[in-house]
Each structure stands twice: as C-alpha cells, then as structure tokens.
Amino acid sequence: MNKRFHHNLSQNTAVWFTVLVIGLIAVGSMVIRQTAVAQTGPNQPNGSNYTFLPLITVPLPPPPLTDPYTNAFNEPTFVTHAGDDRLFVVQKQGRIQILHPKGQTSVFLDISDRVLTEAEEGLYSLVFDPNYATNGFFYVSYSGLRYEDERWFQVVRYQATNNWADPNTECRLFALRMDYPVHNGGGMGIHPIDGRLYVGVGDDRGLLAAQEDDTYKGKLVRLDISNQTPTSCPGSAHIIAKGLRNPWRFDFDPVTGDIYIGDVNDLTWEEINYIPYGQWGRNFGWPCMEGPTFIGFPIQDQCDSVGTGDLPLYYYPHHPKCAVIGGYVLRRPEATGPQFLYGDACTRELFLLTHASGTASVELLGALSGTGYMLTSFGKDNEGRLYALEFPNTIYRLNLP
C-alpha cells in the first residue's frame, strides 16, 4: 500500500473505512482510451493480445444524472424493496430502516449488537424471499462474532411481521470464519431462473484462498433456500466461480440469467466478470491474475499451475479510479443487448456497459452531484427506479434516460 495514502487515511477514520470497505488500495494517474487498442507485452497471459475496451466519451461533461433523494441515513450500504412502495435502507452499523412513501422512517431490523464494524465489516445486503408476502422470510449478510472473539462472515434468515422483524428469529444459512476485517464481499441476490440465493465472498486477504477448492473464500457461492420452515433454514452451499478478490456487488440478467460481477481489485485493474447462466466453475484468476495481467509473485509456483484463468468481460485502470461498484443488469428496449450499470467508488462516476454480439462497450453517464466522498452501492425500488448510495449519508435517485 502507498504509505502516504495510508497515512492520510489514518487521519480520518470514516474515510479510511470507506476506502477499505470496497478494497481501495492506491490512487495515481488516469488513463482514458476513446478507441479500442490491441496491446501485447511481457505481462500479458502467454504474450497474447487483449483489447482494452473504450470509454464512450462526450466533448463536454454530461449534466448530473442524479437527484439527491435523502440524507436521513448513516453509512448506507444497500437499498431495496419488498414488492411495495417502501424502501428498505441497509446501514453498515447493523440497522435496516424503512423509508415510507410519505417520508417517515421506522426501524425494520436492528442487530447492531451482533454486527462488527471494523474496516470493511458491517451489515452488507438484504434480500427478500420470493414468498415474503406469505412467509415473512428475508436474508441478510454481515460480519459478526461467533464462538467468543472469532469474526465470521454470515448469511442469516430472519422473519418479519408487517413493518418489524424479530431479531430473535435469526437462522444461520452460511458462516465462514474470517481472519481479517477486509475483503469480505457481501453481495447477495436470488437468481431469477433457479430461485437460489447467490452470495459473493471475499478472499479475506488469503494468499491463495481464492484458488483453493476447500474454502469458500474468493468465490461466488450458491445456497439452496427451497426447504425453509419457520424453525429451520437448511442451505447447502456450492461454489459457482472462484478466483475473485472482493465481489462486493453483482447482478443477474433478468432474461437469460447470466451473471455480471463487479470484482474490486488491487493495484492495476478493476474487473467486471461475466458468467453465462449454467457455465459454472469459471476461474477468474485472482490472485495470480489481475485483469489481463499475470501477477504470479509471491506465489509463482502455485500460479504457474493455475494458468491465465477466465479473462474479465471488461476491465479498466485502477488509477485514479479505485474500486468498481457493481449495480444492476438492465433490459431497455432501445439497447442492443443487456446493459450493466456500475460505478467507481472514488470518482463517483456512473457507467453503462452494453454487452451485445460478444463485445462490450462502455458509456459514461455522469457523476454524483452532491458533496459526499465515496460511491458505495446501488439500489432499486418496486417500480424499477434506480438509486445510488454515497457515504457518509446520501441516497440519490438516478435519472437515467
């Protein structure tokens, strides 16, 4: 890590957390390409060509495409809905609040007494069961203590009645002991085709954990939630993909079921990884690969056996951008294919990646218009309207064309 950067972060605990929560390591000079360029070099896998996909730019910066919607919540990490016009706002400290249609707020769930909040730790995501209207089940991911002082990444189920969830209904589907309060992952979603719960798990700074098949670290994991009852929550876990560093946010194509993952990387490239539905077992190469680059060091022998892995669908320079924030896969009538909304934490810019005919192009939409300092996540309401979340306390409603 850049020592000066680390020192500056230590001056401000809030900024230090926000940077760590999405895997930011360093900031440097910017590289922008307006046309696709084929490149080769000694750091490329097997010396092969790869294409740096272009940013589609405009002569002047576009007007802000965001409206500040509310700043009533502290450190929001996710926003979602339960099939009606309420917004559920997840906050890092362990609380989920409801923003009601007329603007009033209420506490939906408070587990702040069991959530760890050091560095990247906290309450990450909220997913409602497809049958929530009848069973009241929902799922959250968070970092918390188990067995005295051990930190664990956990996916748990709670049950709610009306506008309140009972913390005593916690039923644990998945738990993984972590050594560090960073690289936890935390993204979740229920697949539109198979109905299972998918979870992104970070590599916990493990030297080769993302490549090891005997751990869920550095993986995209699938949990079976089909046999839930009020008194039990069985959930067998299966690895869908490996070689990920910190899959903070991902989403599914609502038509095909394909998966788009925003994987926060380290020093050189930020990645958007792509999994066609059913093509499980992909290996995106971390820590041996970062973007198109073979790293190897300090585990050269092990990385030689891994090979190049599956290259990202898209990658962009880490400097001065710092961490990709995955959003949602959109299906808009005017588009030539599925579009993945994503952003960058540090520049607070929003992008739209169009994936069509085996290629990808990226359009710059604009940047958040407020005074916050870090894009952290996206959200969606029951009408499909999109939101962007910014630390320390702002939620924006996006005005996409």
**Cα-atom Rg, whole angstroms?**
20 Å
- The residue ranges in which pLDDT falls below 50 over 5 or more consecutive positions are 1-61
Structural class: mainly beta
Strand order of the largest sheet: 3-27-26-25-24
Mean pLDDT, nearest integer? 82
Number of helices: 4
**CATH homologous superfamily grouping:** TolB, C-terminal domain
Q: What profile does the largest beta sheet have?
A: 5 strands, mixed
Cα shape: globular
Number of strands: 30
Number of domains: 1
- Tell me the CATH architecture: 6 Propeller
Helix content: under 10%
Stated plainly, the CATH topology is called Neuraminidase
The top-level CATH class is Mainly Beta
Query: Strand fraction band?
Result: 35-45%
What oligomerization state is this entry in? single chain
> Termini separation (Å)?
39 Å
Structure write-up:
The protein has helices at about 5-10, 15-20, 130-135, 300-305, and strands at about 35-40, 50, 55, 65-70, 75-80, 85-90, 95-100, 105-110, 125-130, 135-145, 150-160, 165-180, 185-190, 195-200, 220-225, 235-240, 245-250, 260-265, 270-275, 280-285, 290, 295, 315, 325-330, 340-345, 350-355, 360-365, 375-380, 385-390, 395-400. Helix 1 crosses helix 2. It has a single domain, classed as TolB, C-terminal domain (Neuraminidase, 6 Propeller). Strands 3-27-26-25-24 form a 5-stranded mixed β-sheet, with no helix packed on it. A 5-stranded mixed β-sheet has the order 13-14-15-16-20, with no helix packed on it. The chain is mainly beta and about 400 residues long.
